[in-house]
Design brief:
The protein is α/β, with parallel strands linked by helices and 192 residues long. It is built from six helices and six strands. Strands 1, 2, 3, 4, 5 and 6 form a six-stranded mixed beta sheet that branches. α2 runs antiparallel to α4 and α4 crosses α5. About 3% of the residues have low confidence. The structure holds iron/sulfur cluster (SF4). Iron/sulfur cluster (SF4) binds next to α3 and α6.
Length: 192
Amino acid sequence: MMTQNTMKRFISGPEVRASDLRQWYYCPRLIYWRYTFRAPWRPGRITKLDEKHDPSWVGRLKAFSGCEVERNVCLRSKTLNLVGCMDALLMCGDELIPLEMKRGTIRDGHDVQLCAYAMLIEENFEVKVTRGYLYYPGEKLEEVPMDNALRKKVLRTLDLIRRILEEGMMPEPTKDKWKCRVCDHYTYCGGV
Ligand code: SF4
């Protein structure tokens, strides 16, 4: 349940992107560099997928042969002050399902980002979303239940992001120093 203070933070700050939730799990300090310091940002550098530029990639997902597929669907939530563009929205009968394609071994926050898309779908289309999919090309297609625990995680992470924005404080660096080696902000952050 959202407190009044949390709600105020949600609606008074700048719009947060669903991808920011995943970034927060990579390193919370990325949020500081992006929004407070306004550092140059190259979206998708870490997660860029060649397959995303191949229009047939969803067609290769045989599990969804009976569904209609809309690619690159962008939605906005006034309630959460959140925007997001999912890789695909699957329309299977009456059911709407978000799908996000990912790669790499760092999977923290992928499920949280996916659930944020589910919540965007629910607010925009007034439907209940019960599952989503994470697609790791050449590896696996993972069904993720959109349960209450995951939804709470989305709200909690949004609140933590908004605190960084509101207080302008620089979070501690990630403890996983190897992440800093591929970070866009290493030059001025240094990971310390
Ligand atoms: S350099 Fe390291 S600590 Fe700094 S923002 Fe990047 S990942 Fe985080």
